[in-house]
Amino acid sequence: MEPDARTQRLIDPTVLDRIQSEIDSEIVVLFMNGTPVFPQCGPSSQAVQILGLLGVHYKSIDVITDPSLRLAIKDFSNWPTLPQLFVKSQFIGGNDVMRQMLEKGSLQELFNQLSIPMSDAPN
User: Fold this and answer.
1) Could you report the per-residue pLDDT of 59-92, keeping only the tens digit for each?
2) Boundaries of every domain in the chain
3) What's the fold here for domain 11-113?
């Protein structure tokens, strides 16, 4: 059995500290490929659309501009793909999880339970 590729990478601890600082400094943080105005992949675009649909204020972090961050976020969350959503420092998931939660109403419920304002939220 081959070791997991993540265990073979050496992640700079300062990058992990930066990730922790980012998710601790904002209520909703989206690590993504690109920016909300110019997402660089379909899943990032979908995540932006979901948060936009709900009218949730969030901080986006473009991992394309920093390859060490792009690798480290995957190790930090133990989630292999981007984008990645964090709410109140807790990892929620990627766009597939966000989409499923939206369809079930549990994403809106999560934001309501955590008193995170939503505008233009669907009924």
Assistant:
1) 999 999 999 999 999 999 999 999 999 999 999 9
2) 11-113
3) Glutaredoxin (3.40.30)
DSSP string, the chain: -PPPHHHHS---HHHHHHHHHHHHHSSEEEEESB-SSSBSSHHHHHHHHHHHHHT---EEEESTT-HHHHHHHHHHHT--SS-EEEETTEEEE-HHHHHHHHHHTHHHHHHHHTT---SS---
Minimal CA–CA distance to 6: which of 77, 55, 66, 65? Answer: 77
Strand order in the sheet with 84-87: 59-62, 28-32, 84-87, 90-93
Cα 73 vs. chain centroid, distance in angstroms? Answer: 9
Q: What pTM, to 2 d.p., does this model score?
A: 0.88
